[in-house]
Amino acid sequence: MVNGEHPWKRAVLTGFIAGFIGQAILRLIDLLILKLAG
After folding, report:
1. How far is CA 28 from CA 11, 32, 34, in A?
2. What is the reported pLDDT for 24?
């Protein structure tokens, strides 16, 4: 761990990345459902 680094920064970054990936996965699932239903 780098000296002076704040743990909450890493937690916020991890949460942001996880949320971004989650949104992308949900969007892909929606596209697949639309293709299958269409």
Report:
1. 26, 6, 10
2. 98
Q: Tell me how far apart the alpha carbons of residues 6 and 15 are, in angstroms, rounded to a whole number.
A: 15
- CA–CA distance, 32 with 24 (Å, rounded to integer): 12
Backbone angles phi, psi at 5, to 5 degrees: -80, 140
CA angle 10, 11, 14 (to 5 degrees): 85
The pLDDT tens digits for 1-38 are 556 678 889 999 999 999 999 999 999 999 999 999 98
Say what the alpha-carbon torsion angle 34, 35, 37, 38 is, to the nearest 10 degrees.
Answer: 100
- pLDDT score of 38: 83
